Amino acid sequence: MAGLEDVPSMDLMNELLRRMKCSTKPDKRLILIGPPGSGKGTQSPIIKDEYCLCHLATGDMLRAAVAAKTPLGLKAKEAMDKGELVSDDLVVGIIDEALKKPSCHKGFILDGFPRTVTQAQKLDEMLEKRGVKVDKVLNFAIDDAILEDRITGRWIHPSSGRTYHTKFAPPKAPGVDDFTGEPLIQRKDDTAAVLKSRLEAFHKQTEPVIDYYTKKSIVANLHAEKPPKDVTVEVQKVLSS
């Protein structure tokens, strides 16, 4: 492991400034809920940086636990190899492990979990054992018809990750990247048929989670159809109140 003398002084200064900024921030434990294309992925990095939170994406965490061969990761791999779904208890266990990291000291953003009421209950039980609770659930409320427009018009330049939209941010020349002239692709998930099945799953499984947290008076409904900057302003208002 490198000693402090091996770390560039600019990196040390930046880390010191980050810690000073973070020390004054209130702890926050947040859940982001919304259908695919509602803007959660756009807002979460902004919230993470502003409040010094860790971003817990359960899919990434599962893959990392499997790769690191942690005890929970090995159990998850066993289930995956059999073609089974990873149990809710395992996922909550992996979140519990992640919360021990220094980066989660001020709190977390959970995105993509809980997807069901059972998962929400198990998450609450785990947090209760830690003596904490979810502070706010941000509900990215948006009409299905707007999502279809947003998602089916999305095109990507694979090597750079640059994204375009036929309606909202079209490339200068149809079907090609502005900078390289290389062809753009559409992700397999970004079709009307895939979106329809994902939305059906969201309405059936995840909308009851919003009701579950509404009863606890911690849900903030955002107007997710607005431009991203306007949604950021809404989020800031909610989190500063």
From TrEMBL:
It holds the Pfam family ADK. It catalyses: AMP + ATP = 2 ADP. InterPro entries: Adenyl_kin_sub (IPR006259), Adenylat/UMP-CMP_kin (IPR000850), Adenylat_kinase_CS (IPR033690), Adenylate_kinase_lid-dom (IPR007862), P-loop_NTPase (IPR027417). Keywords: Kinase, Nucleotide-binding, Transferase. Residues 154-189 form the Adenylate kinase active site lid domain. GO terms for molecular function: AMP kinase activity; ATP binding. It comes from the Eukaryota. Its EC number is 2.7.4.3. Catalyzes the reversible transfer of the terminal phosphate group between ATP and AMP. Plays an important role in cellular energy homeostasis and in adenine nucleotide metabolism. Belongs to the adenylate kinase family. Monomer. This is adenylate kinase. It comes from Actinidia rufa. The lineage of its organism: Eukaryota, Viridiplantae, Streptophyta, Embryophyta, Tracheophyta.
